[in-house]
C-alpha cells in the first residue's frame, strides 16, 4: 500500500511540479501525516528533495548520507592495506 501512495505522490510532483506535503495530501486524497511520513522516506531514499521553501520536488535528496559509520577521527573506519 505505501508504494501506491508513493507513486501517487511522485506522479503528482512530476505532473504539477513542486508542492508542500499538505498540498500533496489533498491532491492524492490521503491523510497529511501519512503523506508527510512517506515524503520523508522518499527523501531518505534520494527520490525526493525538499527545497528551502518547504516544497518537495522529484530529484536527489539534500539529506546527508548516514550509511557509513564513522569513528572518532571522522573516518569510515577503513584502513589502508599495507604491503
Automatic annotation (TrEMBL):
Stored SUPFAM superfamilies: Winged helix' DNA-binding domain
Highest taxon above the source species: Archaea
Domain named HTH asnC-type: residues: 5-38
Recorded GO MF terms: sequence-specific DNA binding
InterPro entries according to UniProt: AsnC-type_HTH_dom, WH-like_DNA-bd_sf, WH_DNA-bd_sf
Region (Disordered): 57-83
Biased composition, class Polar residues, residue ranges: 58-83
Protein name in the entry: Lrp/AsnC family transcriptional regulator
Organism whose genome encodes this protein: Salinirubellus salinus
